[in-house]
Design a protein that fits this description.
The complex is a heterotrimer of chains A (about 170), B (about 775) and C (about 270).
Chain A: E1 4-11, E2 14-21, H1 26-33, E3 52-55, E4 58-61, E5 74-76, H2 78-81, H3 85-97, H4 106-119, H5 125-131, H6 143-153
Parallel strand pairs in A: 1-5
Antiparallel strand pairs in A: 1-2, 3-4, 3-5
Helix pairs in contact in A: 3-4, 3-6
Chain B: H1 24-28, E1 44-50, E2 56-62, H2 64-68, E3 72-77, E4 100-101, E5 107-113, H3 116-124, E6 127-132, H4 139-143, E7 158-166, H5 169-174, E8 178-186, E9 198-203, E10 209-213, H6 218-229, E11 236-239, H7 256-267, E12 271-274, H8 277-283, E13 290-298, E14 304-316, H9 326-335, E15 341-350, H10 364-381, H11 386-393, H12 412-423, H13 425-433, E16 442-454, E17 465-472, E18 478-482, H14 491-503, E19 510-513, H15 531-558, E20 565-568, E21 571-574, E22 579-582, H16 583-592, E23 599-605, E24 624-636, E25 642-652, H17 659-679, E26 684-685, E27 688-689, E28 707-713, H18 730-733, H19 735-747, H20 758-765
Parallel strand pairs in B: 1-12, 10-11, 14-15, 18-19, 25-28
Antiparallel strand pairs in B: 1-5, 2-4, 2-6, 3-5, 7-15, 8-13, 9-10, 9-12, 13-14, 16-24, 17-18, 17-23, 20-21, 21-22, 24-25, 26-27
Helix pairs in contact in B: 9-10, 10-11, 10-19, 14-15, 17-19
Chain C: E1 7-10, H1 16-21, E2 30-33, E3 43-46, E4 49-53, H2 58-63, H3 65-70, H4 72-79, H5 84-89, H6 92-98, H7 106-111, E5 115-120, E6 127-132, H8 133-136, E7 137-139, E8 142-143, E9 150-157, E10 163-169, E11 182-190, E12 193-202, E13 209-210, H9 212-218, H10 225-236, H11 249-267
Parallel strand pairs in C: 1-2
Antiparallel strand pairs in C: 3-4, 4-9, 5-6, 5-9, 7-8, 10-11, 11-12, 12-13
Helix pairs in contact in C: 9-10, 10-11
Classes of the chains: A alpha+beta (about 170), B alpha+beta (about 775), C alpha+beta (about 270).
């Protein structure tokens, strides 16, 4: 199992070619080989969501994904999510709503939330809560995370209430 | 004394506003580099071999195969560091265990290698031969005559004892019309910081140590590491990268830090050592598990008469802060409500179990759980409602309790009435009770609990101080250099906010530096809900110095008196509000003259008061925080599942500084308390943790959180920064106690053991559980 | 492709990855990634049978109108399956081959009398066999899939019109939870009488199980309290729960007793 696999995939919009050990996780590849440390290790078994990334538009735990399995696919990490307009909107909402404390779970939640909003625009409170059930947060009690996602998911993108309080 | 009154009514004040956390944009972008993300060029990866036995003699360790593995730079055991010294609060364990292991987490050997994978492979090649020793899995076993000694200097396996008394217990009992007694059992839970533990150690050629550490107490640790290494503390620099959660878990030194230092010293390379999640569960501290017997009494009119408390703490194999939680527990026992006669005894007994550290609330969750159960029970016995009974015995401002705590500000009564009114407590309580015999298997319950916690620092150490350096550049940009660490709680934002409030500057005009012991002034550390209070006062002190200096210079130019001038909106203003000088411009002129000197230093120490004496009497904090929380639950009697539907909280926080930040602290604390009450349960059986993973150690997830209605009781503490008191720990403290009372309200059954996990609740409701029994052992 | 023999088959990876990293499982010499095999994808109905390709993810099942409307019992279980991230990666084939006694999708599939389609190509010609799920599952983590066989699909006969089913998974969380016990039960009302009664359980035996005696107690009977109680008693004789870190055997039995009764009450609209 020490054999390497040659893979080619799109990472945050850029084509990449890489040789990875067959047993390596996408999480390890992103962090250790590609220096994308926004994707976090929280548990290594898909129970905490800190390593959430998008693969072909679907959110997955990168700790459960083999790096070799990224071959031919479109991978987006937190670093890519915040480059988009929707991602920036979400980040502003997280900041303004107080959804960030220690921040370790935040990138995974941002990625999951971006997926949730894309799949279910205008998701209600219950849908948002279910949508992030796979992301553990120890600091915030989730309330402000749900608020942030709800405000970013609002259909009207014209109003940004996020400057309030920032003098 | 500060003078907050002057600024309270200023319309464009920042106080009480919703100020976003300064580091949030980076964190939400994945840009923040936590210790796990730091790559030091040339660094090796460290890994620790832990015991596979709970209690055993180490007969031999063979590291030869591991040493021979390609890519391995060092394999060390206790034999390689004969000079190592005991660490931790109790100074009772060596980083690398020499001849005996006392718990499953025990460190036996460590590897430094080119990669984590090689280090892990090397661990598997180390051969340890053990001779099993009897496992002391309970405090009873450890206290039995003839039980093996776990530490040679502790013949009876007692790690620590606490004895406190006030008044005359016998008199209290004689005056009582009602006496109740129960035994409570509080379980193991652990911090579960989302970022696992890690450290990077590096020596320079002169032998100076640079440590990247997630410690909450960098200055205290400098000293401890210096003792361990036998070097001058001045040669140790600690940098604290952003931390993936603290909650008290990083208040003590744990063996992995010295071990990384040993490896770095031996290999002369930087060494990075990061836990796996499983390791985090096994080798991190827990909350202190407690067996508690409480006997309480009151008169017919509802006046409390006495409390008699005995507790046994499973100390685990070693002594960390968990053993000292009685300091806080006895405060709740003696002073949450007025009770004239009180006795409190704790024995902490060494066992072969995991050991407990400090954890948000620090013993107070455990004590409050017992005290608040009896508040309900006594109220019922004398025919009073729980609210009236608590109000009758509640503390009020000005009170000096028999233990010596001086409540200069106290909003407990307002907390009680506010939480009760907003939750419609009395009506719902009566309604739920009337439905006990309804056929519907799903019951509703409502329960109340209050808490008292330090809110103005805690004099655990000889002093409780924090320093600030504040400099202002020629563009009126302020750098606030504070000793106070940021652990995710938002201290950097609130400190910047307090400075901006003084200097009339926007938040964007401040940079906070808070994570490098070579730069930052001394501080005790992040604990005891003290940072806003102590570091906040210190920051205000520095800002006021700067303000005075600026206004003096301005007054010299305009001929005004200083008190006729102010700072607002980036200008020096006259009392009329007229803008006299643009601050940046004025400061430039000062910097280019020879009179600038715009580097301020300030220190804040808690105001003088009676330090706690050997009888544990004294005034441990400059201010005290209060809260009442009402929990509403739904309980399915056919499954035992308890759902927390709503928490109505009223918190005496002194004053709200950053509304966004304080809401975040309270909401997060409530959900942490919910986990303690309902879902989290670190299952320790015969010294082995059965569920070291998030699959079976259940943190609360987003769909489970309750509706939260939070009220702030602003008592404007005279000593607090802008009137504020600490709040970090308070919100987690009452939940389990209030849920217990809610379960009783829903079913008529009182459960005195945590957690209220479905099977435990189901068993209690159906008479299939064994209630905790007292065994002082 | 199916000739190599000593192969570890990878689809979503959500179970395989933690198993390999925890050292419980070593890859066989060949790790075969089947993700791009088109024959293993898709959900389609043909002649009263729904064929679900092995690579169909739990999310795809949840998003399928066919599954929601016609195999609602399965859909309910998918809604209780782990988290969104896992549902996006985990496949029905992987869930079946993993053969967990607590597998969320297995319980309704068993109740719906699903069969798995196993494909092999021993000497150049494709051989297909269909195995009822009850026979496919042998024990915890064990199935009758041969080393050279690939699970290609699961086929589910559509229940008759009017069939009502309910899935119950015990836990404090809606999803991210391993079942303490789970129940799938369904029936069709024929006037006052119950037909096509199906009851299956998870996490009370070495595999997910059907409860034939409980079903028989209801089949063709009037749906009243006494009949339900008889069925529940019959079910208790059919389960063999164990005690583990999640629950005691006693509590699992209590849950089956209480919650089967509740689920049947809903199904029978009592």
């Amino acid at each position: 199992m020490s054999a390497n696999c040659d893979i080619a995939f799109t990472l945050n919009g850029v084509k990449r070619e890489l040789s990875v050990p067959a047993g390596m996780s996408a999480l390890a590849m992103l962090r250790e080989r590609l220096g994308l440390t926004g994707t976090k290790y929280g548990c290594g078994e898909g129970e905490c969501g800190a390593c959430t990334i998008l693969v072909d538009g679907m959110s997955v735990n990168s700790c459960l994904l083999f790096a070799a399995d990224c071959d031919g696919r479109d991978v987006v990490t937190i670093e890519g999510v915040v480059q988009s307009e929707a991602g920036e909107r979400l980040r502003s909402a997280f900041v303004a709503s107080g959804a960030v404390q220690c921040g370790f779970c935040t990138p995974g939640l941002m990625v999951q939330a971006s997926h949730l909003i894309e799949q279910h625009p205008g998701a209600d409170e219950a849908a948002i809560r279910r949508g992030i059930e796979g992301n553990l947060c120890r600091c915030t009690g989730y309330r402000k995370i749900v608020d942030a996602i709800a405000s970013a998911a609002k259909p009207d993108p014209g109003q940004t209430p996020f400057s309030e309080g920032q003098p | 004394m500060n003078e907050p009154a002057k600024t309270w009514s200023v319309p464009d004040s920042l106080i009480g506003k919703r100020i976003p956390k300064m580091d949030a944009p980076d964190k939400a972008s994945g840009r923040t580099r936590y210790i796990q993300d730091l790559e030091i060029p040339g660094a090796l990866h460290g890994k620790i071999l832990r015991s596979t036995r709970v209690h055993a003699r180490i007969l031999s360790i063979d590291t030869s195969a591991a040493k021979a593995l390609a890519g391995v730079h060092a394999v060390i055991t206790a034999a390689d560091v004969p000079w190592q010294r005991p660490i931790g609060v109790g100074r009772d364990h060596l980083p690398l265990k020499a001849d005996r292991v006392l718990s499953l987490r025990d460190e036996i050997a460590a590897v430094a290698a080119d990669s984590e994978a090689i280090a892990e492979a090397a661990l598997k090649l180390i051969r340890v031969v053990y001779e099993p020793l009897p496992v002391l899995a309970t405090t009873i076993a450890a206290s039995a005559p003839g039980a093996p000694r776990l530490h040679p200097d502790r013949p009876d396996n007692v790690a620590m004892t606490f004895d406190y008394a006030q008044g005359d217990l016998a008199q209290g009992e004689a005056e009582s019309d009602v006496v109740v007694e129960d035994v409570f059992r509080l379980h193991y839970v652990t911090h579960c910081c989302m970022g696992v533990s890690g450290v990077i150690a590096e020596f320079d050629p002169s032998g100076n140590l640079l440590l990247y550490s997630n410690t909450q107490v960098p200055f205290l640790h400098k000293r401890e590491f210096a003792e361990l290494l036998g070097i001058d503390p001045g040669r140790i620099r600690i940098i604290q990268p952003p931390i993936g959660g603290g909650f008290g878990s990083k208040l003590d030194i744990y063996p992995f830090e010295p071990i990384a230092i040993f490896l770095a010293g031996i290999t002369k390379r930087p060494v990075k050592l990061v836990f796996t999640r499983e390791e985090e569960f096994i080798a991190s501290p827990t909350r202190q598990p407690v067996l508690l017997k409480l006997r309480s009494g009151c008169r017919k009119d509802g006046t409390l008469t006495f409390r008699d408390v005995e507790t046994v703490h499973d100390n685990g194999a070693y002594t960390s802060w968990g053993a000292t939680t009685p300091f806080v527990m006895m405060q709740t026992i003696s002073s949450l409500y007025r009770v004239p006669h009180c006795k409190y005894r704790t024995v902490a007994v060494y066992t072969n179990n995991p050991y407990a550290g400090s954890f948000r609330g620090y013993g107070n969750l455990q004590a409050t759980f017992a005290v608040e159960a009896h508040m309900d029970k006594l109220a019922e016995a004398v025919g009073m409602d729980g609210l009236a009974f608590r109000l009758k015995n509640a503390q009020h401002p000005g009170e000096v309790t028999p233990q010596g705590m001086h409540f200069k500000s106290c909003g407990l009564k307002e907390c009680l009435t506010t939480a009760a009114q907003r939750s419609d407590f009395l009506r719902k309580q009566a309604e739920n009770r009337s439905r006990w015999n309804d056929p519907d298997p799903v019951k509703r319950g409502i329960g109340m609990a209050s808490m008292l916690h330090v809110g103005g620092g805690a004099k655990i150490y000889p002093s409780d101080g924090c320093g600030t350096i504040l400099k202002i550049d020629d563009f009126a940009h302020v750098t606030l250099i504070t000793g106070a660490s940021e652990i995710g709680q938002g201290s950097e934002t609130v400190l910047a906010q307090l400075v901006c409030e003084e200097l009339g500057l926007p938040m964007t005009a401040v940079t906070v530096v808070n994570n490098d012991t070579d730069i930052t002034p001394w501080d005790v550390g992040v604990h005891a809900s003290r940072t806003t209070f102590i570091a906040g006062n210190s920051a205000i002190g520095a800002a006021r110095k700067a303000k005075r200096k600026i206004l003096e210079a301005a007054a010299a130019k305009t001929g005004n008196r200083i008190d006729e001038l102010g700072l607002a909106g980036g200008f020096i203003t006259a009392s009329s509000g007229e803008k006299l000088f643009e601050l940046a411009k004025f400061l430039r002129s000062l910097h280019f003259s020879d009179k600038a000197d715009l580097v301020m230093t300030s220190f804040y120490y808690e105001p003088p008061s009676r330090h706690q004496d050997k009888q544990f009497k004294g005034d441990v904090s400059a201010a005290y925080a209060w809260a009442t929380q009402v929990c509403e639950i739904e309980l399915d009697t056919e499954t035992g599942i308890v759902r927390l539907l709503k928490v109505t909280g009223a918190h005496d926080v002194g004053r709200v500084l950053n509304r966004l930040g304080i809401e975040g602290q309270i909401e997060g604390g409530i959900v942490m308390g919910q986990g303690y009450a309902l879902t989290e349960d670190l299952r320790v059986e015969a010294g082995v943790i059965r569920n070291p993973n998030f699959r079976d150690y259940k943190l609360v997830t987003a769909p489970e959180i309750p509706e939260m209605d939070i009220s702030f009781i602003e008592t404007m503490d005279g000593e607090g920064p802008q009137g504020a008191k600490g709040v970090g720990e308070a919100p987690a403290i009452c939940i389990a106690a209030a849920v217990a009372n809610a379960i009783h309200n829903a079913t008529g059954t009182r459960i005195t053991a945590l957690p209220f996990a479905p099977e435990n609740v189901y068993r209690a409701l159906h008479g299939a559980s064994e209630p905790p029994v007292w065994n002082a052992a | 492709m199916l000739r190599a023999g000593d192969v570890t088959v990878l689809a979503g990876g959500t179970d395989l990855m933690p198993q390999t990293q925890a050292g419980r499982l070593r890859f066989r010499p060949v790790l075969m990634n089947v993700r791009r095999v088109p024959e293993l994808k898709g959900i389609a109905e043909d002649n009263g049978v729904v064929r679900i390709g092995a690579l169909v993810t739990i999310t795809e099942l949840l998003d399928s109108a066919l599954v929601r409307e016609r195999l609602n019992l399965l859909w309910q279980a998918c809604d209780h399956f782990a988290s969104d991230q896992i549902r996006n990666a985990a496949t029905i084939g992987g869930n079946l081959c993993n053969a967990s006694p607590a597998g969320d999708t297995l319980v309704p599939l068993l109740a719906l009398e699903a069969r798995v389609v196993l494909a092999a190509k021993p000497n150049g010609t494709l051989q297909i066999r269909r195995v009822p799920l009850a026979q496919f599952l042998l024990g915890p983590g064990r199935s009758c899939r041969g080393l050279t066989e690939l699970l290609a699909a699961v086929e589910v006969p559509l229940p008759g019109a009017g069939f009502v089913g309910e899935f119950y998974k015990h836990g404090t969380r809606p999803g991210l939870d391993i079942s303490t016990i789970s129940i799938a039960a369904g029936a069709r009302r024929d006037g006052a009488v119950l037909r096509d009664v199906r009851i299956a359980f998870g996490a009370v035996a070495p595999t997910v199980i059907r409860a034939p005696r409980a079903e028989a107690a209801l089949e063709g009977h009037r749906a009243d309290a006494a009949t339900l109680e008889a069925a529940v008693q019959a079910a208790l004789a059919e389960i063999h729960p164990i005690s583990d870190v999640r629950a005691s055997d006693w509590y699992r039995r209590e849950l089956i007793h209480n919650m089967l009764k509740r689920v049947l009450t809903h199904v029978c609209k009592l």
